[in-house]
Write a structure and sequence with these properties.
The chain is an alpha/beta fold and about 260 residues long. It has a domain of about 180 residues: 3-Layer(aba) Sandwich (Rossmann fold), CATH 3.40.50.300. Helices cover about 35% and strands about 25% of the residues. It is built from nine helices and twelve strands. The strands form three sheets. The protein has a six-stranded mixed beta sheet, sandwiched between helices. About 35% of the residues are buried.
Amino acid sequence: MPNEPVLALRGVSKRFGAVQALTDVHLEISPGEVVALVGDNGAGKSTLVKTIAGVHAIDEGHLEWKGRPVQIHRPHDAQDLGIATVYQDLALCDNLDVVANLFLGSEVRTVSVLDEVAMEQRAMELLKTLSIRIPSVRIPVASLSGGQRQVVAIARALIGDPQVVILDEPTAALGVEQTAQVLDLVERLRERGLGVILISHNMADVQAVADRVAVLRLGRNNGVFSVRDTSHEEIIAAITGATDNAVTRRQARTTEAAK
């Protein structure tokens, strides 16, 4: 894994009036790495993502892109750098087909006419590369399952060839099979050399695909853990700020019963 991160946050802080949402947050994402960003409700995950995506300007600290300081004041700045964000609401147009959704706002034109053939061919190539299976690229998005809609939204983020992809709760409200489909896609993003920030409350999903877990608590860093070397209980303890919680107590009872 390359030593130099493609994206780094250095001492990032953000305040909304009297509310200190983020305080001196540090985070690094390397190419070909999945970093899970976890924390309880109100920990600052959404605010942190929005500062990276250009929705909120940071108050203190700075961001680095491939080792050089950069400023992100608006979403276009993040997109121009190579940062794509897939929000939880997906923002798909149900009445449009898959091709139209993939190229919405980035349509391919020949002079002043939409090049439907070129867009359809590129859409099929992209979906095939990502091993995404849908009945047809010309069916309305409204007819797709939840998992298929999620992978279409992720595929749309790749149209601009980003180097970092932020996924906000990509498996929320999905069934077991649909969740597996999305997690498979996350692994393929890593194989393509992309840096992935995965926001999730599902520890099973995190441990299935993430390389490292960055924990936020009350707007501050509360540890960065290697998934391979860290237990589920240690991550929960970092999230809650206490080693004595429902998860660790249940683990202790299970261990005691096994004896």
